[in-house]
Recover the amino acids of this structure.
């Protein structure tokens, strides 16, 4: 059995053909030009399907926002990808398509084939342009009421902040560490997390101040989540996770300060195994769980 996993992002569409054992048969990336994300998805699907002759394929699609209760479409996506809300993917692709949030998909990839394999209770946080998240409880993806569970980036770390997140919450984790807020956090000295991290590694004093404050706030958020959900493992994925030791070493130091550790037991915090194709792989996993046959 094969699944086609599609990950619709703000700048690219990614797709994978994957077997139930995790073998990736094909992968493709298609850039989105002039906000024509529909055409980008359609072209990717047409191109990738030429790479397999067995058409017993299931389809999953990951996208930002909140899916409907049947996981057939994205019901709510404020501020990005105009036209995505309530867009009928099954009608568009003329096949059954199973839709889920992109951070939820990234967690499914890790649970099925990555660092969380055989785990039952896991929290994942994705650090990139924004901050997303996903929760696994008793071996099942927890989507919650209105499929809105896991919106970790909207956790408030400062109720007195004048900065409101997209969901009207002040002082969010996303504003504290997401890539989009870098210029404001650094008084326009830096324009991306990559720039801050490179300057931090080079010994820049101001970059160190900005970066370590962000990592400190992340550690407080993770410690709070550990207290609330008591996971076996915390996973950090997304582009910012590629900072590697520049992120994970100071984070470990802050966690020693803020995490409550009964009997000295710390919760493992690990880097996600999958990177840019995590959403697509997870969408493929979701299709195996939920999908029907895909055929042209």
């Amino acid at each position: 059995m094969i699944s086609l996993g599609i990950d619709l992002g703000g700048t690219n569409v990614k797709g994978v053909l994957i077997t139930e054992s995790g073998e990736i048969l094909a992968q493709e990336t298609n850039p989105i030009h002039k906000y024509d994300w529909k055409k980008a998805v359609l072209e990717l699907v047409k191109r990738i399907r030429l790479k397999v002759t067995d058409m017993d394929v299931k389809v999953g699609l990951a996208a930002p926002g909140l899916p409907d209760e049947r996981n057939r479409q994205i019901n709510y996506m404020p501020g990005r990808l105009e036209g995505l809300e309530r867009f009928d993917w099954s009608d568009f692709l003329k096949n059954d398509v199973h839709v889920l949030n992109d951070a939820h998909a990234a967690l499914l990839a890790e649970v099925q084939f990555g660092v969380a394999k055989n785990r039952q209770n896991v929290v994942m946080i994705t650090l990139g342009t924004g901050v997303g998240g996903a929760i696994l409880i008793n071996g099942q993806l927890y989507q919650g009421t209105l499929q809105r569970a896991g919106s970790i980036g909207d956790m408030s770390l400062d109720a007195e902040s004048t900065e409101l997140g997209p969901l009207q919450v002040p002082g969010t984790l996303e504003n504290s560490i997401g890539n989009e807020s870098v210029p404001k956090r650094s008084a326009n000295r830096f324009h991306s997390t990559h720039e801050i991290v490179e300057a931090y590694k080079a010994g820049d004093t101001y970059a160190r101040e900005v970066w370590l404050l962000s990592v400190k706030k992340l550690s407080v958020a993770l410690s709070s989540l550990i207290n609330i959900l008591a996971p076996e493992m915390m996973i950090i994925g997304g582009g910012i996770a590629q900072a590697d030791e520049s992120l994970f070493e100071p984070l470990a130091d802050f966690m020693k300060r803020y995490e409550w550790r009964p009997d000295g037991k710390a919760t493992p915090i690990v880097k996600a195994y999958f990177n840019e194709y995590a959403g697509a792989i997870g969408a493929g996993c979701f299709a195996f769980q939920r999908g029907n046959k895909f055929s042209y």
The CA atoms of residues 62 and 255 lie 31 Å apart.
